[in-house]
Design a protein that fits this description.
- The radius of gyration is 17 Å and the shape is globular.
- The chain has an eight-stranded parallel barrel with strand order 1-4-5-6-7-10-11-12, surrounded by seven helices.
- The chain is 34% helix and 24% strand.
- By secondary structure, the protein is of the alpha/beta class.
- The two termini are 15 Å apart.
């Protein structure tokens, strides 16, 4: 049995780690490189660095900050935010990261996922999916994508979406159904999916287990559950009921509510295979 992974996430804005609720009301949570070193020493399996305003601000990920983080850790580092070209990926890999997380550009130009996977290998390409429970059923998205197969659904199809994909740091709805999009990015060559429930993000009410399970059952590639962790039990639920391969959390680690070692010890006691 493959071991389940525990992954702290550094959401970075203006060079500082931040955390909010439902992607807004951000507050400072420290220096990225110092946080990364703590998580490395505690035995995190991987770490995710997301430059959360890069795509919205139409700029590149902060390579200098990524370098500082990479120098502090000896575990896999995934970086996302503002990545739109193969050169962006190459620069970040050269800066020391191991995987690249693509969200906005993947939706706007799905072929980019395939090109990136072909160039650097599927094990290097993570597609991040920010999903929110659908509420509006009669409004088409204004976001356009190039692929004919992925053009926004008409109203009748949109009304059947349970979770809708958002881009640009959760600002823009796309009309894409999250489960269908997960299947598509797997076909395009993504090696992993980082799935964030926007409804649960920062709430500490627990991961969206139904969403996580549906995505996990729909694809064969690993799925990282994200958004809503507030208790030790939530990690267990995501990795068992949610069928996720990894659980990602931010604020509970940043504000020292519990450590990665405590999480892993709890999971081990519950019969979940983890690396101690």
């Amino acid at each position: 049995m493959l071991t389940k992974r525990i992954i702290p996430c550094l959401d970075v804005k203006d060079g500082r780690v931040v955390k909010g609720v439902n992607f807004v009301n951000l507050r400072d949570a420290g220096d990225p490189s110092e946080n990364a070193k703590i998580y490395n020493d505690e035995g995190a399996d991987e770490i995710v660095f997301l430059d959360i305003t890069a795509s919205y601000e139409k700029r590149k990920t902060m390579v200098d900050v990524v370098k500082k983080v990479a120098e502090k850790v000896f575990m896999p580092l995934t970086v996302g935010g503002g990545i739109g070209t193969l050169e962006d990926i190459r620069n970040l890999l050269n800066a020391g990261c191991d995987k690249i997380s693509i969200n906005t550009q993947a939706v706007k130009n799905p072929d980019f996922v395939k090109k990136a996977s072909d160039k650097f290998g599927s094990q290097c390409i993570v597609v991040a999916i920010d999903a929110k429970k659908s509420k509006v059923k009669s409004q088409k998205s204004k976001v356009q994508v190039k692929s004919q197969k992925l053009k926004m659904q008409d109203n009748s199809e949109k009304s059947n979406n349970e979770w809708e994909v958002y881009i640009n740091g959760g600002r823009d709805a796309t009309g894409l159904d999250a489960v269908k999009w997960a299947k598509k990015v797997e076909e395009l060559g993504a090696g992993e999916i980082l799935l964030t429930s926007m409804d649960r993000d920062g709430t500490k009410d627990g991961y969206d287990i139904e969403l996580t399970r549906k995505i996990s059952e729909a694809v064969k590639i690993p799925v990282i559950a994200s958004g809503g962790c507030g208790k030790l039990e939530h990690f267990y639920e995501a990795l068992t009921d949610g069928k996720a391969d990894a659980a990602l959390a931010a604020s509970v680690f940043h504000y020292r509510e519990f450590t990665i070692r405590e999480v892993k010890a709890y999971l081990k006691d519950k019969g979940v295979e983890v690396r101690l």
